[in-house]
Amino acid sequence: MLPAPAFLILIPLPALVAAILGLRASLVLGAGLLGAIAYMVLALAWPQEGGASATDSYYVVGFAVFVQSLIAVAFVATVAQAIKERLGRADRMPTVVSGLMMLIGGAASLVPVTIPPADRVALFGTVGEVGAFVFLAGVAGLVLTIVLRPLLRRIRGRA
Question: Count of CB atoms within 10 A of residue 72's CB?
Fold first, then answer.
């Protein structure tokens, strides 16, 4: 059994606190990375019932892969934003909003997976689907803000 859905708040909570404190965008994304890692550690340490067959089930493996990919995307975004801040172009607000969208959407898309199959209702699936779209919008916003915007500025500067 995976941790209860209420523990999903661990993923975006450090980033929300860092954003409220007004920290730099790379620190907000780094806090989100720490939140995703903390949730992954909690999920791995969560007591399993049912033996090895329960941990090998499709939804547990998919859950672990998704959280690991969330950690990887948050890490790449954090490093890219830190490099961008060192170059002098922070774009704090779009980066923070896109990062929070990615983290909150990622956490929401995990809701159906954290509930045992016998207890699932359609509402949890809907929350998961909407969360997945918000996650993808956040990733697209991060790509636009961190990669494409500086590239377009550089191209316009040379033209």
Answer: 12
**60 CA to centre of own chain:** 18
DSSP letters of 46-106? SPP-S-HHHHTSHHHHHHHHHHHHHHHHHHHHHHHHHHHHHTT---HHHHHHHHHHHHHHH
pLDDT in tens, 98-147: 999 999 998 998 888 888 777 778 888 889 899 989 999 999 999 998 88
Higher pLDDT, 55 or 40: 40
Report whether 138 contacts 100 (CB < 8 A): yes
10 token code pair = 């661990």
Residues 6+ apart with CB under 8 A from 94: 141, 144, 145
Residues 6 or more apart whose Cβ sits within 8 Å of residue 114: 2, 3, 4, 5, 7, 8, 63
Quote the pLDDT of residue 4.
Answer: 82
Determine the number of helices (DSSP H) and then strands (DSSP E) in the chain: 8, 0
Q: What are phi and psi of 4, to 5 degrees?
A: -60, 150
Half-sphere exposure of 136 (CA within 13 A, CB side): 5
